[in-house]
Amino acid sequence: MKRQIAGLIASLTACVLLTFTVVLLAQSHVIPANTLPVTTPSVTEPATEPTTIVTTIETTTPATENTPTKPNARVTAAPVPQSLAESVEAIAQSYNTSGLSLVAFRGQELVYSQYYGFADMGRSKPVNADTKYRIASVSKTISGMLAMGLVADGKLDLDKDISEYTGIQITSYNYPDVPITPRMLMTHTSSIIDGPTYTANTTAAPLNQILAVGDCFSKSKPGTRYSYSNFGAGLLAGVIEGASGEPHFYDYANEQFSAWGIDAGYLRNRIKATDTIAQIYQGKTLRADIPAWGRIDYRYAAFPIGRMYLLAHGDLIISAQDLSKFAIAMAGDGTFGGQSFLPAAQVNEMNSIQPNTGNQYGLCVSVSRSLVDGRTMHGHAGQAYGMVSGFYYDPTDHTGVVFITNGCSIAKNEKGIYKITNDLVNLIYDNVL
Q1: Which fold has domain 133-431?
Q2: Most confidently modeled of 26-35, 197-206, 235-244, 268-277?
Q3: CB 118 within 8 A of CB 99
Q4: What is the 3-state secondary structure (H, E, C) of the chain?
Q5: Contact at 8 Å (CB) between 111 and 332?
Q6: How many CB atoms lie within 10 A of CB 112?
Q7: Please, which residues bridge with residue 399 across strands?
Q8: What is the mean pLDDT of residues 301-326?
Q9: What phi and psi, each to the nearest 5 degrees, are found at residue 111?
Q10: 216-266, pLDDT tens digit by residue?
Q11: Where are the domains of the chain?
């Protein structure tokens, strides 16, 4: 009798386990800078295939006279399968993507989201809605929003000499009598460039030491010529410090994020949920161990107020869900969920083409007429150490797409757009927006 009971229990246990396994398998398909340490350990193959989580929210939005004609469907890098989720996954696979978070919105509503692959391939840790990434140059737009908040508060003047905020005199070696302004930093027209002394800096040397060499200025007169500059954009951090009166740029940023209910930060140790931070890969090789990355905070803390020239240009760590809130604010009136991220007047100024930028840049905002046919897209691209991110929106009908990868092909098309950006953004606009 005991043997019969034991056998019955074993059979029931096996049935339960089999049922649980089938349910799990079904659900996985139905629910839809300068000082970065470089590591190159080999990464073991993930124990399981990448999974995809998809969320679609059906909304109805009445057509308006300002709504552009929807562009014709485009052919993506891979044949498009039947479902949108499969199409996104096919694009991700065609560009050897490690992990991907993608969110689309219309108005104040998130209308589509999808999460694919692994945040940590070595541990087979999948990407989900909470996954945070270092977003590279998309950080510039968020830094710009922080600066414009100070403009709205009357604490920052975009056309004043930045020396008034940094506490040291900063002028071009070639035009010492021409002031460099925050507006110039935000439009890449400051004449400050990523010269050899800046790019070779691996120890976060003091700002005056970097400037003393003189190879970080172009021959252009400040304010007259667009020249993309991480150094110049990074200096916005010092300007924000000087204008806000806060101890450090990264602390001021975290105060703002916390007020908006967002767990994000320009330093890894300013993130509460550090276990959600994704690694960065090139192919299947670990390129940056971000979750364990302490960086060199003690050096940053030693910078005099106003002299921070790092972080603001590319070090923000945030999830795609939270990043989309900034995009929604920038595509509309500066609000999300009833909270004001930025007054509408400052949003409009950021989105407006600025002089001497070749009609391609606002204030920390790139403007593209070639990404989506029939639309002028605003936002920013990001790329560093093997990852690509995109933050794009159309202010005319308040729609947009945000995506972040933690490693993929960084090839560009003939228009200079990252191919994965082109394919993902157009797929969403063709089928969702």
Answers
A1: Beta-lactamase (3.40.710)
A2: 235-244
A3: yes
A4: CHHHHHHHHHHHHHHHHHHHHHHHHHHHHHCCCCCCCCCCCECCCCCCCCCEEEEECCCCCCCCCCCCCCCCCCCCCCCCCCCHHHHHHHHHHHCCCCEEEEEEEECCEEEEEEEEEEEECCCCEECCCCCEEECHHHHHHHHHHHHHHHHHCCCCCCCCCCHHHHCCCCCCCCCCCCCCCHHHHHHCCCCECCCHHHHCCCCCCCHHHHHHHCCCECCCCCCCCCCCCHHHHHHHHHHHHHHHCCCCHHHHHHHHHHHCCCCCECCHHHCCCHHHECCEEECCEEEECHHHCCCCHHHHHHCCCCCCCCCCCCCCEEEHHHHHHHHHHHHCCCEECCEECCCHHHHHHHHCCCCCCCCCECCCCEEECCCCCCCCEEEEEEEECCEEEEEEEECCCCEEEEEEECCCCCCECCCCCEHHHHHHHHHHHHHCC
A5: no
A6: 23
A7: 106, 394
A8: 96
A9: -105, -15
A10: 999 999 999 999 999 999 999 999 999 998 889 999 999 999 999 999 999
A11: 133-431
This prediction has a pTM of 0.84
Residue with tokens 């992990």: 99
In sign, the C-alpha dihedral spanning 136, 138, 140, 143 is negative
Residues comprising the chain, all counted: 433
Question: For 188, phi and psi rounded to 5 degrees?
Answer: 60, 35
Query: Amino acid identity of 14?
Result: A
Q: Which two tokens stand for residue 319?
A: 């999830």
What letter represents residue 340's amino acid? S
Q: What span, in angstroms and rounded, lies between the C-alpha atoms of 101 and 116?
A: 7
At position 286, the amino acid (one-letter code) is L
Which of the two residues, 320 and 30, has the higher pLDDT score? 320
